Amino acid sequence: MKYPFEVPFTEVEAEIDLYISSVFSCLESEFLVMPKGEGFVEYPVFERGYEFLKRITNGFRNIDSRSITKAAFQKPMVIIVLRTMLGFTPSEWAYVATRRTGVEVSQGFARNLDRNIRMSPMSALSDSRVTRERVGALVDAACQLLNMPAPEVGPDKIHRLDKADTSTGPSGIISLSNIGVPYAMLLYERFLGRPFAGHRDSVSELVGDSLESAIEEVLTKAGISYRKTKRAERIAGFDQTPDFIIPSEFNPQVVIGAKITEDDGTARDKVTRIQHLAEISKMKSTNGFPGFEVIACIGGRGFGVRREDMKKLLIATRGKVFTLKTLSYLVEFTRLHEFKTNE
Fold this sequence. Notes:
Elements: H1 9-14, H2 16-25, H3 43-56, H4 65-74, H5 77-86, H6 90-101, H7 107-119, H8 129-146, H9 170-179, H10 183-193, H11 197-202, H12 204-221, E1 227-228, E2 244-246, E3 254-260, H13 264-286, E4 293-299, H14 307-317, E5 321-323
Parallel strand pairs: 3-4, 4-5
Antiparallel strand pairs: 1-2, 2-3
């Protein structure tokens, strides 16, 4: 079976279903494997923070903000453990701390604090007055919440603290820290929270970077001049910025959209973005200016769900749709070969 970029576009149009299947056949998904990325916390590091927190609270029998704040400056991983006990994101914790203590803890501060600890878990926290005040507020709010049972809510709602460890206050934490967690409860909370969800969100850009890096390698090997754009960067002449412009943004002849998704709904949005690039090229040609070739480089199972979306993508790019598996053909079967300087 040939790929759509190997044949004239008239043939792609005539046998569109065949070429949709062709692209589907070479889509690969990497959702089972994630990059660790910077700031990945290995379990032994997390466990040391947990054991230190357990020790200074006398087995969670004395969840006291003053002693925990002092401990947090000695071993900052305590802060990560405390946040995990709450089940909050850094931004959520900052909001709750501000509301409960009256100390202004910005979401940016909480996110940076969390990241800095993950990046260097053995480094001491800044001893500035502002840091002490804000960390104290975070810990104080956490201790207030962990020292009381989860509030009652209506039967059609669930409180975020209604978890196996925090639903009954300190007694639940003490019990689980001593006897462990029933496997069914572990599975249920995993069902509600998605395993590795927080980490997956934090490395989402790295996942996309893997495809972009592969494209860069192909372009560099061929000696092709290109401009790789930054996220949310604005480029003159593009109300929607492509990921690569060849040879430059001042003379765009080829543009590449690099898209990875494991979700079919997100895939639809990304197809629309590629279609819009094709519309920009068509509009330039209509107004007497040279257009550019639009190439889509895609990955992930999300693109392999809706045939209608793939049809739109093939039409918008005139068959120039590549995957990681077919990236070696990128230069040969597109206008990129016009800019090749290395054999």
